[in-house]
């Protein structure tokens, strides 16, 4: 009896503790409202989420394809992170008007810059469609259900939005044990209004990424436009600023330790129910390989970026994207090992197995033995997957070369128009060459090809490719072999030669393509990897089915417990407090950072820690305007909270108990980078840029008082 009690205790420990949790907004009144109110929330449940009335959820948007933003004025003004707007800012920039480097603020609406391809989505409503989905899968095997699922989701979404301009998406929750439909309204006319200089918006660079204390002004400003009828419309000079259902007032009161904080946004993905088998695969193989492949690519790019400002601008967006998760997965591995999350998960699984055995649950009896078999079957191929996906296919020339596969198929097997396919690819090639930095691509390619040969077992390699390299260039143990091969490939490929490309497009033949060195490289590794994709598919299918059963068993064992599903880029709410923390013995981190610390980090001319001369002058004079913190007698730059977030929450509003904006969430802390898998109630912190620093940058540094006047400031 004692053993069973211990087992159940361990099982219950998997449920939310402290400020853990990414909650569904429409269920807050039933699930967490009382706890939120006890922590300091002053709003009613209907003020947080309502279908029929204006509510806080109406001010929260999906920004672009993977971030969150918030509406902060009655004229559709958007705040989000600098790194979320980075691509749009870089696209709007040129060497003559380098907004990325120098910053930009539109003084009038006519000065705002259209952002082609950028859209925002507003949440209209959330509905539980579990019964509809389950009714559609009665009697189906897991394999058949997986094949049918996308069609079922699509049919439900289309039926729900028929006759409207809305779009809907069905999300599987708890590993497809519950199904929720989110309905959205998408606006496609989004314009750049303001951005600080990159030295402010990316202050600290990769060195400070995922670190606290932090002094980054990670914000950018956009505006959403609509047709004159208030409905979504393609870009037009006739469009007008959107009149939102709700926008966030902005607090100038600042934060103190213990203050309530709440975050609405779109967390991308977590796997809090990951098994011990998944933890071991991540720490032993997957994460180290991922980090190593990205490390090669980043170093090759950085060597060229630091030589030339034009190259830095050219590669900036791609570099930032690569670097972010390079550091994340490095930190995740270290934290998973440091806190022995494997052992914790193993205990939880033993507890669930004890419950299964005790209650004679035959449906769940083989879960963990089948997990063991699935992981054992996949393990021999796991490193090759990362080396191929994060390494070999990383260089843009290889990505483009892989797109020529259809052309070769048409030329050798028929079934398509090779000339038409090439005509379509010509525009893509032009874009490739515009953004291509040959020195960095050439270096990363030879290093990646060398690493693959060195680290992947011989029987999983493209043997003919390496044999030909050896015959033509020398020993595979010599760096010069790979360097000479890469130089020859870049010099002789039709992909990079205008005359050869034009000739090939005019008269395409299979031999010319098959003998092209860059296409042959892409093809060799692609066909080699394709031999092992069945093993990956089998592993993913087994893992999905077992995960479904695991969560079904877990929820049954904890039927009375309130739980939140893993993040999946559907709107969630998390809440907590402004709070300092102790990362290790003898060290305590304050809950805010100030301009004093910013000046201490400042290094003139440094790649990561430089600042605009005007900012240094203003801060040294303590010219903080109305944005100074009355207690600190300084300008607060950032603060931390205990709210639970993950990627996708970038740009999310940090909101006080009165529903006022106090900051923008932009990062997590290094000591808790295992948060996608394991939430640490003592160490997890959300790093936020203080809204007063944002306003100071706009007003005092940027001189854009017109933007400040548009906001509703609460003093």
Automatic annotation (TrEMBL):
Tagged with keyword Nucleus: no
EC number(s) from the headed UniProt entry: 3.4.14.-
Family classification: Belongs to the peptidase S46 family.
GO biological process: peptide catabolic process; proteolysis
InterPro entries xref list: Pep_S46, Peptidase_S1_PA, Peptidase_S1_PA_chymotrypsin
Leader peptide range in chain numbering: 1-18
Pfam families listed in its UniProt record: Peptidase_S46
Keyword tags: Aminopeptidase, Hydrolase, Protease, Serine protease, Signal
Job of this protein: Catalyzes the removal of dipeptides from the N-terminus of oligopeptides.
One Gene Ontology term of the molecular function aspect: serine-type aminopeptidase activity
UniProt entry tagged with the keyword Transcription: no
Protein name, UniProt field: Dipeptidyl-peptidase
